[in-house]
Amino acid sequence: MTLMSPNDIPITIRPIQFDELDRIPLRCWPADRDILLRLFERQGTIGMAAWEGDRCVAQLHCYRIVLPDQDNPDWPPWNHWWRPEWWLRMTGSVNLNLSGPAWCHACCHVGRTLESFREETEATSAAPTILKGTDPRYFGRGIGTVLCRASMRWAWDHDYTTIMALGAPQGIFEYAIAAGHLPWTTYAKLGFDFFGLVTDAAQLPQWAHGHGPAEVEEAIHSAVAAGRPMQDFFERLMIMNLTGA
């Protein structure tokens, strides 16, 4: 299957190279080029990118960690969702009996280009929206899924034992876009299992309490009004074990 852009141009997927840094929007990666250079030296790449000709239109950020006791010092401190204590606090359940190098999908941004990223950083509006900084014409074309498949091949070829990702709640598209997390159902279709499932919840997760764009809050309120149980709003830690693949 050939991915096509909204401009009817084929989209190609490949690992990001160091000499391409000025051609991709570095929204969630470290701003320090020395840190990025260390990541390339340690990992070989910093993730996958989708290209419409020479124009980057989507990115999947990836980090290497070595479980169970080694961190990645260049992983953004505000995004350490893989830590067992964080997952226990968020879901009340944790089961991370893992070891060896893990390849982690930090976030995925479809439709984010240098142009849209520049518009986002230059915007003066104080009210965030889910579409700020993205081009929605690239949504729904399977780009995120193909980025994940390319990342899975990379992890397999480079002797990782595990791939980890945070899956957004099912059916809340607005949150997936705002958070940069693909739905957990996307990962499940790719063969991932989930850890730390929420079996019961009396209230919404912390992120659902007025901490994001208005579209996300509206989508949550609509889902709650429709009777969706609280556990449906929690993100899920998705894991693929490569040692038995």
Written description of the protein model:
The chain is of the alpha+beta class. It has a single domain, classed as Aminopeptidase. It has helices at 33-43, 84-91, 114-122, 143-157, 173-179, 184-189, 214-225, and strands at 11-15, 47-52, 55-67, 100-110, 162-167, 193-195, 236-241. Strand 2 (47-52) and strand 3 (55-67) form a beta hairpin.
Q: What percentage of amino acids are in beta strands?
A: 15-25%
Order of helices and strands: EHEEHEHHEHHEHE
Tally the helices: what do you get?
7
What form results from the Cα inertia axes? globular
Main β-sheet description: 7 strands, mixed
Proportion of residues in helical segments: 25-40%
Structural class: alpha+beta
CATH topology call = Aminopeptidase
Spell out the CATH superfamily: Gcn5-related N-acetyltransferase (GNAT)
The number of distinct structural domains comes to: 1
CATH class: Alpha Beta
Quaternary organisation of the protein chains: single chain
- Uncertain segments of ≥5 residues (pLDDT<50)? none
CATH architecture: 3-Layer(aba) Sandwich
Tell me the span between the first and last alpha carbons: 24 Å
Q: Radius of gyration from the CA trace? A: 18 Å
Q: How would you describe this structure in keywords?
A:
alpha+beta; seven-stranded mixed β-sheet; globular; 245 residues; Aminopeptidase
